[in-house]
Amino acid sequence: MLKIESISKTFNPGTINEKKALVDLSLHLAPGDFVTVIGGNGAGKSTMLNAIAGVWPVDAGRIWLDGKDITALPEHRRASLIGRVFQDPMMGTAPNMQLEENLALALRRCQKRGLRWGVTREERAAYREVLKTLGLGLEERLTAKVGLLSGGQRQAVTLLMASLRKPKLLLLDEHTAALDPATAAKVLELSEQIVSENKLTTLMITHNMTDAIRHGNRLIMMNEGNIILDVSGEEKKHLTRQELVDKFAALAGTPIDSDQVLLSQ
Q: Where along the chain do its domains lie?
């Protein structure tokens, strides 16, 4: 479903601030893969997701999605293929619009717009049913402004919006990092549910090693712009957090130095 071949990205090349963010990185995802991505600060995790999403062009290499070469496609042309949930709960929704209006925008993404009602009676009934699956009582708040929802509720809605049209690839960019532990656990549970029910191919960045082990069918660890560990199946299922720390130290040749990673339980 996703094929990344030898991509590289350098910021501020030829200057004192030069930073090699991605170095000859390759990654293949099969349809339905749910891959968690972990690594220290500056390892290249978000740069990889931004390259896939088309936020900026890569310097070298190619990216294919569902057999289509998207390397040169601008970000807005990839919007029909990719869903994304960001770390900030304030992103991904229109806060001054109603909940049902946000869902209508997501449903009509990349479609031509016409002069008709923004939300039909049939759509409203469908939104109510799909919101019930979240178990947050939002099906009774269709006309509430999204900006009035809590951070966890907004992330749940953003998840729903990102998956409403069943994208070829779902990108979860540390989407629970700004939430309290209990809310983060609920949003992760909903993420697993939505990915499983819709059979979505998914890449999820997290700083929490336990979450990286617990969720998904495959785990990759990044360091200095490349993948240094790729585990799946029984090997991933039986990994412990300490083993993951030890593997990083052995493969990177240095102890993991990200306080955020080390302190994440």
A: 2-256
Question: Span 2-256: which CATH code?
Answer: 3.40.50.300
Distance from the Cα of residue 236 to its chain's centroid: 20
Residue with tokens 């999820």: 204
Q: Residues of 138-161 as b/e, b for ≥16 C-beta within 10 angstroms?
A: bbebbeeebeebebbbbbbbbbbb
Contact 72, 63 (CB under 8 A): no
Extended beta strands in the chain, E state: 2-11, 19-29, 34-39, 60-65, 68-69, 82-85, 169-173, 202-205, 218-223, 226-232
Assign 3-class secondary structure to 86-103: CCCCCCCCCCCCEHHHHH
Q: Which of 7, 112, 130 is nearest to 59 (CA)?
A: 7
Residue 32: CA count within 13 A, CB half-sphere: 4
Single-letter amino acid code for the residue at 155: Q
The pTM of the full predicted model, rounded to 2 decimals, is: 0.87
Burial string for 66-91 (b: 16+ CB within 10 Å, else e) reads eeeebbebeeeebbebbbbbbbbbee
pLDDT tens sequence for the chain (265 residues): 999 999 999 999 989 999 999 999 999 999 999 999 998 888 899 999 999 999 989 999 999 999 999 999 998 888 889 999 988 878 888 888 888 888 888 887 655 665 455 677 788 888 888 888 888 888 889 888 988 888 888 888 888 888 888 899 999 999 888 888 888 888 898 899 889 988 999 999 998 888 999 999 999 999 989 999 999 988 888 888 888 888 888 887 766 654 444 434 4
180 vs 218: CA distance, rounded Å: 25
